[in-house]
Amino acid sequence: MQSAMDNISDVSGPSDIERILVPILDTFILVAGVVGHILVITVIFQDTSANGTDILLLSLSVSDLLLLSCIPYHTVTIATHHWPFGSFMCKAVSFLGAMCTSASAFTLAALAFSRFLTVVHPSKAYRWRQGRRIKLATAALWLPAIVLALPQFSWRTLVSASGTHTTRQDMTCFHFLSDTSQIAYGMCHFMFAFALPLGVIVVAYGKIYNFLRKTRRGRTGQADRLESYQTQVTQTSVLLVLGFALCWLPSYGLMLAQFADHSTVTRPSPPYGALATFARVTSISSTVVNPILYVFMSQKFRKELKNYELWYLCFMVFGCIVFTAIY
């Protein structure tokens, strides 16, 4: 996914409006995302009864925070219209972004599988979600993410935006493979870090829905309360997935459009203008979606915020962001 965001963040000749608007939007996303995920991590660490789902949500917050750390580099690039951070940071930022977006997709797939076991096969879920096992499984999710991102660190380099100058002010962090290899890598990233996890997620939640629908009749009062809780948690998980998928679809759609037009694949200036800017902003907005969903959908999360008096910080930060955006 990061390869898509990298390519569309190197668009040649951004308008004056984009150069002003993008840094403002990036700042809002960065502040809201960092504060939101710090609140999530604080709540999880303070909760002594944290379960397997909480461990996966913690991993999701860590990946989003790492992805947020990449935003300032792209913001400066768009504002100044060149990459001023050197070759190593070009490789490192691209690697970090690709790794984190892949890890997020894998974690959401694991969250869907965990929900499936909890609802449909609770006895198996208890064994699988034991503290040590779930921690090892969550850590293991980062291994394929690292493997998928390694080409970014190994071969990405600086190129001249115009193709005629090689000054520092003319360099952009862009392509790192040949035409055919670039397409192959992009398609592999799309399949393994987006389409495949999304397929696992759809199947898992489809089975959960069918199970809950079939077992709804003949429930006792206690069973109804348990089912209500499971339904609420499942709904929150589904919304997390939908938010992630919808935020990243424009970037992937644009990346696939670039691959369909071979003339744009190896050019450091894809001609997509405002559409590319929109796709980039929606993709990084995915880092803000999760904390917002926790606040509005998770009764447990709201309760923990109140217990630790974190509501004040939450309202203050998000309130200031909304107020500034309006006025």
From TrEMBL:
Transmembrane segments: 20-43, 55-75, 95-113, 134-153, 183-206, 238-260, 272-296, 308-326
Example of a GO MF term: G protein-coupled receptor activity
Membrane topology type: Multi-pass membrane protein
Domain G-protein coupled receptors family 1 profile: 36-294
Subcellular localization, as worded in the UniProt entry: Membrane
Keywords for the protein's UniProt record, in alphabetical order: G-protein coupled receptor, Membrane, Receptor, Transducer, Transmembrane, Transmembrane helix
Any one GO cellular component localisation term in the record: plasma membrane
PROSITE patterns tied to this protein: G_PROTEIN_RECEP_F1_2
Pfam families referenced in this protein's UniProt entry, alphabetically: 7tm_1
Keyword set includes Transmembrane: yes
Protein name, per record: G-protein coupled receptors family 1 profile domain-containing protein
The organism's taxonomic lineage, starting at the top: Eukaryota, Metazoa, Chordata, Craniata, Vertebrata
